[in-house]
Amino acid sequence: MVRRRQEDEHENHDRWLVSYADFITLLFAFFVVMYAISQVNEGKYRVLSDALLHAFKPDDRGGRPYPDVRRDDQPQPAIQLPIKLPVDAGRRRVEAKMKGIADDIRKVLEPLVKEGQVRVTESARGIAVEINASVLFAPGQAVLNDSSVRSLVAVAQVLAGAENAIEVEGHTDNAPIGTPLFPSNWELSAARASRVVRLFTQAGVAPERMAAIGYGEYRNVDTNDTPEGKARNRRVTVMILPAGESNPPAAAADVPVATP
What we know:
By secondary structure, this protein is an alpha+beta fold. Helices cover 44% and strands 12% of the residues.
């Protein structure tokens, strides 16, 4: 009698669960490691790293021991407190010196500051002394008014005893000029900046510390749609850089520079 053929065993369709469970376990371990290394604590990171190495490295018996990494006999990592860096004494001296220069300039230009013709501002870049062009020059001219020379000489006397680099910037509004002497606002703004630099040199400021820059009509601080805005844009700015910083070459590459 022919034996009845034994029926095939039923195929197990749930074997993927084993691989899926291993994948989820590894993914969980990965995110635990990522979270651990994101915390700035070297002691805890070292403990976690050692624990993971022991956990995923089989022992001699083929098993996977999971030792208690926080036993009482093991020294606990010291808590690392944030280190408070002392304030740089040199930087404080520079800031105090810059503030003293700004205060001295405000004092010598006090009448013009009260009239709103001069603005003295302090920033991370340095001290900006913004002087309305109407105080210094006649319209369309680059010759200093006699009344403005005394004020500029007083500013130069403050700067002569310092070591800071100085940038004198000429600015105009957008009204075209087109004279034989000044074909455009570029020439006018550069000539005005050069004239102030030349006066500073005559008053005792070292010429190698200074640069004359003409920005024309392209660095406005107000609108050109109103007479008040145009008057604000026509200005000469004396930029006093912090001690130890020189005139940046990028500024000289971007705009025409006029030498005194």
